[in-house]
Amino acid sequence: MESSAPSYCYDDIWNTAYGDMQEVGPVHRHMRRLLAELLDGIDYDSVLDVGCGAGHNLPLLCARREPSRVCGVDISTEALGRARERSSADFVQLDIEQDALDDRWDLVFSSLVLEHLPDDERALRNMRAMSDKHLLITTIAGDFERYRAWDEQMGHVRNYRPGELEEKVARAGFHVEKAIYWGFPFYSPMARLLQNRMTSEPSYGTATRALAALMYGLYFLNSRRRGDLLILLART
Known about the structure:
There is one protein chain. This protein has ten helices and seven strands. The protein is an alpha/beta fold. The chain starts with 9 loop residues before the first helix and ends with a strand.
């Protein structure tokens, strides 16, 4: 289901909500663990991170393959400024719904971006135009109405129904190889329902960091066949 929420200012959200969640949040840590398994099974010498944010995922993308070309694109000036402080990769400001760069990469990666984009299919077509081999995506599945309070705070406009993203990726010209739905029961629905009562903050205090570490351990019990974190691997 999709929302008609107004366009979001991502420079603002990087100052009011994003930050430690991307670094030490339990869902993000497990997401990177699952991504590492998939990255071990593919070959690539160049990588483009679409919606790179502050560059939290670039070390993961570069750890195993040491690609010769690494580029990150994002719509947010604030996010790109932070990314440049963390990494020596190339960074370009780009609205993936509107345009594509005039180049191709072996791996096009996009994490927790599509759920923000009203025109996700145009974004996928732009990713296809820049992809030579692989597409690797993470996003949010589930019942948008159930989790609307948190999702809209984060600037989300949709949660994907089972099979919906797979169909859109195929229409964009990719062949889907694997889709993981992770998170049941401790992330989804339990933690997601609790998030509806919370407001995200960019910096975690000691108590929040301790809780995040505890939840990270608990989340090892989550299913990787059912849940609201969706990880999809496709080929051109």
